[in-house]
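dumping the sequnces here before i forget
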Amino acid sequence: MINKVKLLFFIIPILGLFATASFAEHLDEISSSCALTTLDGKSTHNLQELKGKVVYVDFWASWCPPCVKSFPFLNQLNHDMKEQGLHVIGINLDEKVTDAKEFLAKHPVDFSIAADPSKQCAKVFELMAMPTSYLIDRKGTIRHIHQGFRPGETEELRALITQLVMEHP
Amino acid sequence: MRKSLYAKTKLVLVMCIGLSGCVHVAPWERGNLAKSQMDLDPHPLQSERQSHNYSSREAAPSDKSSSGGGGCGCY
Amino acid sequence: MPQRSGSNLHSRNLEVQSAKPRNTTLQALTSAALVLPGLLITPGHAAGTDRVNFQYSRYQEGERNLYGAPNSLKPISADVLHGSGIFSLTDRTKFSFSYTQDTWSGATQITTSPLVANGNRLYYENTSSGVTVAGASPIINNRILLDRNLNPLRQDPEGGQSLSQDSRSVLVMSYASPETRNQANFGLSREWNEAAFNVGGGFSRERDYKSSYGSLGGRLDFNQKLTTVKLGAGYTDSAVGAILDHDASPYITKNAFSEQIVKRGGSEVLLGDRQDWVANMGLTQVLTKNALVDANIGYTHSNGYLENPYKVMSVIFVDPAALNNNQTTPVIGDMRALLEQRPNIRNQVAINTKYIQYIGAFDAALHLGYRLSVDDWGVNTHTFDASWVQPIASGWTLTPRIRYYSQDAASFYKPYLISQQTYRKIEVDSSGRVIWIDPSNPNEQYFRDSDFNLIDQNGNPVNEDLVNVQPKTSLFDSGKLPDNFSSDYRLAGFGALSGGATLNKMIMKGVALEAGFEYYTHASSMQLGGSGGNSFADFGYYVANAALKLDMEQVNFARPNISNSHQHEDSTKQHHHKIPPAGIMFGHMLDKPGDLMVGYRFMHNWTNGHMMHGGHKVSDQTIVQQGCSDTTPCRFTPDYMNMSMHMLDIMYAPAKWLNVMLMPTFMTMDMNLRELAGRPAPVPGVHEHQGIAGHETGAVGDTYISSLVKLINIPGHRVHMNLGLSAPTGKVDIELRRMAQIDGGLIHFGMQLGSGTWDFTPSLTYAGEKNRWSWGTQLSGVKRMEDKNKSGYRLGDVFQATTWGGYDLTQWLTASVRGAYTLQGAIQRDFDRFNAHIGPMDFPANYGGQFWDIGLGLNARIPGGRFAGNRFGFEWLEPVRSDFNGFQLDRKGALSATWSYLF
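..and the predicted 3d for all of it:
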């Protein structure tokens, strides 16, 4: 029995290396420390203000190939479900804002783009990988965390969002 | 001679894995690491040719630098 | 080089030096075969974006130092063609493949011998200005003088009196005819979020070496992907079947390998097997935002036949009786050639480390590497390399690099050996009587009595007229030689320094060009820790390559349409007018200005079976009498001849009505000959074809440059015209190697790789389509614009008319039927340099004719999904009727396969 416990002490930290964060937090806890700005540095809306809508928060950077690949899908999502109450917001984590601006100039998108210069938002969301998207329901609970992006995952995401959008507080 | 070489290598590898805990690079700080010039092999077509030419004129075993690791750390 | 008529001089030389035969034909095991291609495959090769690459590389060695002997044999050169691709089958699975073909030929080392042994023997020719040196051919058996301390002595050619010590060694060089190696690799990889697994395999084939290999690999990420652990293992199985050179073989001592040598069709073939196992483990660790380190350890175990079958060891046999006779005069050394011997097992360990640092000030990356390897043959090596990857404005990247390498000699490496025993000794019995035997019945022993009469074992007299006796001899005691010995300069101690650069340019939309160059120098003095003592083996080489890299992943950033989400499929409906069968060139045009299309075309042509004249089969006797010329009857005829062409199509539309095309090509030919029944007997001094080996050639072919102009473009019907040129980048002066002291001369017309002349290649094409049907016709021609090429001749002009019809079996698959008529003129003029004229393929009037063919083809287009925009085509062209101008081998058909992608 004691041996089994000892074994667990070895296994759990090793598993911890692989673990992806899975927690359920609430938007209220997060948005106090998360100050979003526009790409030019001016302060912008708080995430709190988006309560009542389904929010799709996507952390991206110009140098991250899967992030770049997810943009057409996000653009399409935004266009399709904006009326139904979906708000897509892409939070840029480029260390050099000029990189982000150049990227958006070459590939313009319709959904909201914000910046997180102090990287506080990323830390508060406990970001572990690039890209990561967080699906927040109308009540402000983080319902789903998606790490990475592959073209075949769009169907699953779309289904999840549709389900969330159907929920009314 | 070979045995001590193996032992030294094992020690170095274990140290590396241990030390890796000391490194703190956040996922969003990997912009420079993601650049193509920072790839483990930035010119794979060239290295394949070179490796082949060197192996045909030298007696060392072929260079098998495995790919994977570094880079943008994306999922 | 004028044809030598100095046969008198030759026979005189031959008599004087009867024990020194010339051997000039040697195939050296291709450098690639020694390399074990399976061990070079990097695991996880299928990482990164989907892509297709094409690369051409040229390797050229410099001359070796032969200390005054003329370097008449061209140094080694190799032409390499490479294509590879990575495709995502699903989100997380990738398939990779690559194909490499290299053709190489040139002067290679057979052995090393003392300089005084004159291993690179000059040969002469009679010219108008007197007797001149025409070249040097390799000598591997000879007699030299040594002093009492066994140092080689140089004899003054003038007086023959004064002797001086000369311990220098020299490489003895022979010529290897062009040989082609083909290699294909495949791989499959699967990715998870923090791990990957890959499996791969492949094979490599060339005339004397076959190799197959498989590998497994994987990687695991830890620590938010800051640490990566990699593992890999591989296995290679190879078989050697080396055709020993016909000329050299009689002078090579092969007893040690007699069980592995078999006789096939007049040639001796040395067989061997080997297996190699590889395992490696590595770690990549990110150190800071700007630096990472990578370390790797690998172990290789090799087992089996590890020798190079074409390399021999020079062993100088010295009679101990002569050495111990208390005199001071020089002793004679009997130099012989023994096939080299290496251990059957080899274990190697290599440790690789790499450090990569980002330099923000230049937006560049510095790559530093160090590699250490040790093995149980004593070959310890160090490699230091550094490169600087520097992006420059607007899509350019320049990467200079430098590398220093040092290796220790293998424990069994020696330039040559001296053994204190005679090569052959006369056997005596226990009482010292010489044993005599009749070779036809070697078990019966005879002796001679005091009056020198022949007696048998029991002392009874034997009638000498009834038996054919000679003293019984046995070969040297191999136990007195080292177990392993090799003079292969690749196992010697030396250092090497190389430097080069790579230049990369992004052209447009995922198309990039890459060019690389490197110069490498191998020097004995550069070995770490002191000179290797073999500066005679110093040499240098340079490599230049060019590649086209296509990034197949196209990210569609178009804004969403209000109408639909099927926009993707819509765009592919725009321009996909049907394309003609795969065998048609210049058959279609791009529609939108700015379009770029890249494609690959492969064509393979077979000829074998019966020899034909006009339209009917012909007997050997007729070929002998009529196939060549009035003065020269035919002696050999082709048995089979195959031709492969690889072509890269690059097509760009600068305007709606104009397309420009560039098509570099790479050709490979291979053939074999057979003797004609009823041929006249061989004449000494005249080129003959011996043994079972055939001929191969392969290198860059002619390059096509075209402009296509749209003439009519109305719905359902299109007419366009092509005005093109063929640039003579393919060699027309390939020569056969010198054999049995006779020059081979230029190889047959059909084996040269290009036309050698600038040619005008016009064509006119009409294509129509309606619903599922498509049809078309094309008239094309080739008009040679010069009188003769650099070898003195000119290929015939060509006219072709072809018509086809196609039907869409499904939306993406079209079947086609085609008829073609070709009229080809005979070759004009003739070779202006020596050609051996051994058969109908060497005579210009036999080439050309009229040909009727039927083609059956399939074209496929991938309409949607991940691989949309890719097109494939196949066509088989079956000969219906041929009317040859002279004597030619029957045509058996041709296969065309194409791939293209519109950007």
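Chain C touches chain A at residues 49, 90-92, 193-194, 222-225, 555-560, 565, 866 (CB under 8 Å).
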